[in-house]
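Our preliminary data section would be incomplete without showing what the modeling component actually yields. Below, a chain of 163 amino acids is followed by its predicted structure, encoded as tokens that our downstream tools consume directly.
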Amino acid sequence: MPRNKMEIETITNRIIIDENDCWLWQGALNKQGYGIITIDYKAWRVHKLMYILTYGEFDNQLVVRHKPDICNNPTCCNPNHLIIGTRKQNTDDKQIAGTMKRGESHGRAKLTESDVLQIREDFKNRINTLDEFCKEQSPIYGVGESAINKICYNKTWNHLNYD
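Predicted structure:
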């Protein structure tokens, strides 16, 4: 946490204000596009830090969200564009804004959309039990049996059309 005027100036000197009154972070960004800064060997998301500096600490079960009706820019750290909320509210905000990473665009995806569609097609035409099918497909695609099961029952990758 910044302790003195110089550290706060270091932060504010890396911000430019756009026509929407977004305070756009000009420093380092993480993989998700959020501003990050290191203070005393601790990495901070800049928008969270700006929220705390302006409004004070909050329950660590909550997250700092961008107000969906005002701003949806991960580099924005204007405290007036930020609000605390639950992880579910943050996820809902991303879904409404269309910025939620799903399927292949998710950074940790091991499968492609064509893999998933093939698994579902093979599942429809299987001749063995579900357990046997999952055990058989798991090593082929390099994922766990539970991942295959969830794909078959449309619990994951449910954004793909499946008949």
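Strands lie at 15-17, 23-25, 36-39, 42-45, 63-66, 82-85. The first strand starts at residue 15 and ends at 17. Preliminary results of this kind motivate Aim 1 of the renewal.
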